[in-house]
Amino acid sequence: MATATEGRMALSDRLTRLIEVSAPLWAGEAEVVRTYWDSPVRNHESELLWLRRQCSKEFNGTGIGEYKNMGVFMGPITELGEIFPKIDTGEGGVDRRYALELIEILHDEFDHYARFADIYDAIRGPGTPPMNPHELETWDEDAELTRTRHRHNAEHGALGVRASRFTEGGYCTLFREGMRLKGRGGTDDMIAEACTKVYEDEFGHMLEGIVGLDDEGWSEAQLDLLEALVLEQLRLRIPMRNAEFSFPLSGERVRAIYAGDIEPEVFDYGHAESVMA
């Protein structure tokens, strides 16, 4: 049965529940970033660190169901190369709109990388080499999140991919919190400008994990599994983001968030509806 939430977006009870159980963990990831901006752990080195790590995610990130787990950049490039001879060849071919979708994904992800790399190069200072994406490395907490997504995708097929896409970006928490730095001047304004553009793209990507979910025809048992996969991934996003930003939250605070000691993030159904339209 479909239900209208806050008068907008007719969603099933199960999809509404999935959003509601995710909201406290989205809020936890947002708290990491929001706390960092004014935390004593924030300094020039921590700023360069999170920018390098975010560039790594934008350039080499993998695990959300992209082509052969090759990542957000090489996945679309490789797939485009393989489908090129099949575009619009009739039965058994590849529709031009699918190729265009891959090109748009590739453009968006590289644009996001470039925006954060530009900030890095603007503030790195003398003696620090410019951004080189081929020298970027992941970190333990991000690697654990990626391994979990790969496992979910491999073990549960379309259901795992759907979970990975639903959790991508953690409801755009970094970008939303970065937007709120606007007007503070200096590096903060550069971050706000980049995050504003990335937010709009990532909000659309996040909706790809939601749109059509009610039409999949999954059983109650499968939807229970989807919820479990989503929550497992979202719980890993908080330590991933906390490590990216030099641990502005204590381990005790992270455990409290897991226990529900946080105000849930409010899902913007109105904006979601306008983007979908």
Would you mind describing this structure in some detail?
With 277 residues, this protein is mainly α. Helices cover 64% and strands 3% of the residues. It has a two-stranded antiparallel ribbon. A hairpin with a 2-residue loop joins β1 and β2 (8-12). The longest helix is centred in the middle third of the chain and has 28 residues, at 96-123. Mean pLDDT is 90; it is low at 1-8.
Beta strands, count? 2
Spatial shape: globular
Unreliable stretches: 1-8
Strand content: under 5%
Structural class: mainly alpha
What topology emerges from the helices and strands here?
Blueprint: E1 2-5, E2 8-12, H1 13-37, H2 44-60, H3 74-83, H4 96-123, H5 140-156, H6 158-167, H7 173-179, H8 186-208, H9 220-244, H10 251-258, H11 269-276
Antiparallel strand pairs: 1-2
List keywords for this structure.
single chain; 277 residues; mainly alpha; two-stranded antiparallel ribbon; 2 strands; 64% helix; globular; disordered N terminus
Quick synopsis:
The protein has 277 residues and is mainly alpha-helical.
